[in-house]
Design a protein that fits this description.
The protein has 382 residues and is α+β, with helices and mostly antiparallel strands. The protein contains 6 helices and 25 strands. It is rod-shaped, with a radius of gyration of 42 Å.
């Protein structure tokens, strides 16, 4: 028989379940109200809204940008000032080895490559000037080798005769002239030197030494390899002393070049002008610059856009390259901070000064405050 208490317990549990189902029948099971509010606030901040106020473009093309939005966009401005600026030209260049800090290792004769005491050098290995990188064992033909061996045998026979003559003259010292004895001794020494030179040519190895201290940048040597004379086996450069060679298609600019710069991975490389050639190469004159920034990694043959500064001047306003943007019509403009929350576009004309700076020659005015950081973000406001 079922207990009255147990029956009452089951009845209460069934009623509680029914009440729970009824309470959740029409409730939204989506995102909680508090979470939805946070998401809406985050979305508003992402589009530049702040308490219902967002950046917008006015009918005249200017922008209304609230202060909080300016802060989030990271806008920075600078006063424009007209002054005399150096004229620059853009040149195509490439990284080359400094002739005083780089070199090549070549063979002077044909032979077989042999490794040194430390083995053959590998790419990136640092070497010192005068260090033996490899050996070249000369390879000669059978006919040439036979001729040298025959010459060694002939010299050996002549040496025996010379030694016997010197010994006989020394025994007759006092009965024959002194000059004959000295002549016999000189002839003996000459034959000994000739014999040593010929014998050395048969077995001597040629050492391949590093002409400068630096890093091995190229290698074409393998143990046992047969190489010809003048073949380049190793190239050595000093990464701290590299140069840049640029081509100038206007010879008039050569006399006015003072210094230059280049950009690589967002970093500026200062270039010191060394000199210019006076012989055309591909209808252009080569200009040589020495890289001052040793901490920026460069590679031989790497192309660079060189901006050379000349002694000529132009009147303009110097601003960073990133301050220039293009509008929908493709025109180059800058954003002028015309009011506390107002930005006005202004079409300008410019010339390159260096890798990161331009000179505004038309459209700018002294005293205007122009946006130099975040200008590209302002151009996206609609």
């Amino acid at each position: 028989m079922t207990s009255p208490y147990l029956a009452a317990f089951f009845a209460g549990a069934i009623a509680l379940a029914a009440t729970s189902v009824a309470a959740h029948g029409d409730e939204d099971h989506g995102q909680p109200a508090a979470t939805s509010a946070v998401a809406d606030k985050t979305t508003s901040a992402a589009v530049g809204m702040d308490d219902g106020v967002a950046a917008r473009r006015e009918a005249d093309g200017s922008l209304f940008v609230p202060k909080p939005v300016q802060y989030r966009l990271g806008l920075r401005t600078r006063l424009m000032k007209s002054e005399a600026l150096a004229v620059t030209v853009q040149l195509s260049g490439k990284v080359v080895a400094d002739p005083n800090a780089g070199g090549r290792v070549q063979t002077s004769q044909a032979g077989r490559i042999e490794a040194g005491a430390k083995g053959l050098p590998v790419l990136g290995q640092r070497v010192k000037k005068g260090e033996v990188l490899a050996w070249v064992q000369p390879t000669i033909g059978n006919i040439e080798r036979s001729g040298q061996q025959a010459e060694v045998a002939t010299l050996d026979a002549q040496l025996e005769i010379a030694r016997s003559q010197v010994a006989r003259y020394e025994q007759l010292d006092g009965t024959i002239p002194r000059k004959d004895i000295e002549a016999a001794r000189v002839e003996l020494k000459s034959l000994q030197a000739r014999r040593a030179a010929v014998a050395t040519g048969l077995h001597a190895r040629e050492p391949l030494r590093a002409p400068v201290s630096g890093v091995v940048s190229a290698t074409a040597a393998v143990a046992g390899q047969i190489v010809e004379s003048r073949e380049v086996l190793f190239e050595i450069v000093d990464p701290a002393h590299l140069a840049v060679e640029a081509l100038a298609y206007d010879p008039v600019l050569v006399d006015g070049v003072e210094e230059g710069s280049a950009t690589l991975a967002g970093r500026t490389i200062a270039l010191q002008f060394v000199g210019a050639g006076r012989q055309l190469r591909g209808q252009a004159l080569p200009l040589l610059f020495r890289a001052r920034s040793a901490e920026i990694p460069l590679a031989i043959g790497q192309p660079l856009q060189v901006i050379a500064r000349t002694d000529a001047t132009v009147t303009g306003i110097a601003i960073p390259q990133e301050a220039l943007v293009r509008n929908r019509a493709g025109e180059v403009i800058v954003w002028v901070h015309s009011g506390p929350e107002q930005f006005t576009p202004r079409r300008v004309e410019s010339e390159q000064l260096d890798a990161q700076t331009v000179a505004v020659t038309s459209g700018g005015a002294t005293g205007d405050r122009v946006v130099v950081s975040g200008a590209s973000l302002l151009a996206q406001v609609r």
